[in-house]
Design a protein that fits this description.
Blueprint lengths: L4 E2 L2 E2 L1 H4 L1 H32 L2 E4 L3 E4 L3 H8 L1 H33 L5 H5 L1
Antiparallel strand pairs: 1-2, 3-4
Length: about 120
Amino acid sequence: MDAAMANGRPTQALTDRSGMRSAVLFLLPLFLLLAFFVALPVIGTVWTSFFRDITFLGREWVGLQNYVRLLEDPSFQQSLRFTIMFILASVPLELVVGMIVALLLNYPSKLRGLIRA
C-alpha cells in the first residue's frame, strides 16, 4: 500500500492546505519555464503563419492563405501520405517487437539477471 494512503484514504499530508500550497510553489517554476519555452513559441509561430513575411519588405496579413496553399501543394500531400504510411507501419511493428522483448526478459532462465542488466 502507498505510504501516503492509510485505510484507503489520503493521509493528512495530502489533504492539508499548506501541503498543497507548498506543492504549487514547487511546481510554479516548472510551469513558468514550460510557458516561456514551449507555449509562447508555439503561439508566436501560429500567429506568424497568418502573415506573408518578406525579408526587408515587411509583413502582409494573408490569413489562412498560407494553409490553403500548403494543402494544395503536391509535395506536401506526398509527404503527408508517406508520413501516415510510416506511422501505420512502424507503430504496430514497434508494439509487437516491444511486447516480444518484454516477454523474453520476463521468461525464467539462468541468464535472466544478466539480460535484464
